[in-house]
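pasting Ribonuclease R for the record, 774 residues
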Amino acid sequence: MAQNENILANVLEIFRHNPKKQYQVEQIDRMLRRDRLGSFSDMVKALSYLEQEKKIITDGNGRYQLAEENTEVEGIFKANSKGFGFVKLEDEDSDDIFIARDYTAYAVDGDRVKVKITAGGNPWNGKGPEGQIEEILERGTKTLVGEFHSMTDAQIKTSHFIGYVLSSNKKLANYRVYISQDSLRPQKQDIVKVSLANYPDKDNPDSMTGVVTNIIGNKNLPGVDIMAIVSEHDVRTEWSEDALEQSNAIPDHVTEAEMADREDIRDQPAVTIDGDDSKDFDDAVVLWKLPNGNYHLGVHIADVAHYVTENSPLDKEAFTRGNSTYLVDRVIPMLPFRLSNGICSLNEGQDRLVLSCEMEISPEGKRVNYRIHPSVMRSHGRMTYNNVNKALDQDNHEELEEKYVKLAPMLQDMAELHNVLYQQRHQRGAIDFEEPEAKIIVDDQGKPTDIVLHDRGIAEKMIESFMLIANETVAEDFYRKHVPFLYRVHETPDGERIKGFFEFCSAFGLHITADPNHVKPIDLQKVVAKTTDTPEEAVVQMMMLRSLKQAHYSEEPLGHFGLAAKYYTHFTSPIRRYSDLMVHRMIHAYSENGINQKVQDHFASYLPEVADQTSTQERVSVDTEREVNDLKMTEYMADKVGEHFDAVVSSVTSFGMFIQLPNTVEGLIHISNLTDDFYSYNEKSMTLTGRGTHKQYHVGMPLKVTLTNASVEQHQLDFEIYDPNAPKKSHNNRGAKNERHGNRGFRNDHAHKGHYRNNFQKNGNHPHLSRYKH
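structre below
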């Protein structure tokens, strides 16, 4: 080798010492001269050789960075319908590895694989690392859902298969799954669930085999489309006989024996406040002012743990489901309706067992005292958000039910306390985005008829404030006891991602002085405040979300960054979340048995499993809900092809722009439909710029668009920019050419019950705009 070995080693060592750092030629020269390690000419030759050998990469303007070393890693293969794919590594901050079609080793979407990295990424041209799959370690797709296609008798006789299934998952739609004769016998056009037996290989690259385990129904029947999605995500819908037997054996009323040793608070005017269509009520609130000027706030939560005992059939079912799943036309509950809508629901006028968190709060919003204890209560009113908002509106003259008039003073005091608590959270740095909620209205045949937007009022925010402080109180109480406990956590974001977010903000003239490696919630809250009601608001909020980590459950008290809370748990929704049920179980155990080592060891032994299962199942439910929403939104738009709409650019990518209509429906304008110029993508500013016209598209930009295609099967909408002077043309069913994009953020952490609320993100029609919750 012509190059000097020492200078090569020294230059390479500079890069390896800080593999993520980008060096300019002058910096490298100074470092070498400082240590008297060679001339400028030697350095240039070394850089040229290292670039040629793909040891380093360059932006072409004198900046260099270490290329990823050729190594083997493990990850999950994410397939693309076109044959290529990406491998996602466990480290969420690592870039996905691109796998070309010829190097997938016949891996299927979801497989755990071993990958050999063949080329490092280049941060200057946006090109990520590339690799080839060396080994399939574990199959990730073991079942699929799709449409059954029958074979003729002659084909059955020669092939030994009764037909084949085409998956409804577009990532698997290229495979024919042949169904063996020892299977259930579906009819043509039936939607079925298949258990896979054999996977693609070099002899059968485009096919698999399996058996039908469940016939969901003919694809044209109402509700089958939704149940197909539910089945594909393995959301459990059937109850074991043992669980139903246990459920049926539970009395439908509270007995005198059950009320013994509980505090009787049935005379307190506690009420439930929920949505108009809610059926299960797991929290009630009551408030009054104390003589010392403080507030007494009672948050009373259905004592589900009293009925769902540890390791019982109902408990095993609830653990498997993890939480209830809320769809546009139905709820798939964590518990049988006999419990969730019956004895566990705080129905008006009925005695119910609860766990109470009673707090004394100062006029400044400081909690000065509290008690957590079992009680028996009786709801004095099933109230709705809509009517409470009307009762709180001094300009409203609509006649309301007597219970609203009677309890109006308490409701006013509740609104007053909410304002205090909100200000207290705001001062400590809690981050809060306000976005309208979209509700899809469907008829009795499951067809979408409307999409209704709903802005949260004082009633919704007030209940949220009360649930948040109850969750924090319970979490801190058991943290102070130094016992095993289950926490809802949202960890501090990675410094590199926050640095990237700050750099992105600088393009909009936002000067942020915070240290990205030690960012605090209030630093990001200030960014939100600076952009509120500005054209940059949407894009800045979206990019902030991308820089955050995802909330989850943990046995470790890691804090909650988004809420700026040191201690946080989920206590307030045990009917619909197993995490809350588990928290109630621990509260009972520590209260009844004392904080002894045996009890602590018992919970410590399986809390990590509970944390993992509840976190996993939460994501399953969110993905299922989102996919059903995407389906129904696409179906709603299907008869509107050719119509024009006002829209806003919600995201910009290298392959086009996602746009959002006022009703929150989203779709794609593919870059191939920007025909007036050749557009280049700038990742840092998230813009598409025309090379000739210099026309630029950016997030938040208003557009007039035309719907060109609505693919109900793929749940995708295609748009193009509306040009009134362009010649009319026919629209086809080509489907959106959606490429990869990721999601981040924290989800489901407003203690608020009910449907998962889109607090931290818009209701998205593509993955990086999924719904985010505390």
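Residues 732-745, 750-773 have pLDDT under 50 and may be disordered.
The chain has 19 helices and 34 strands.
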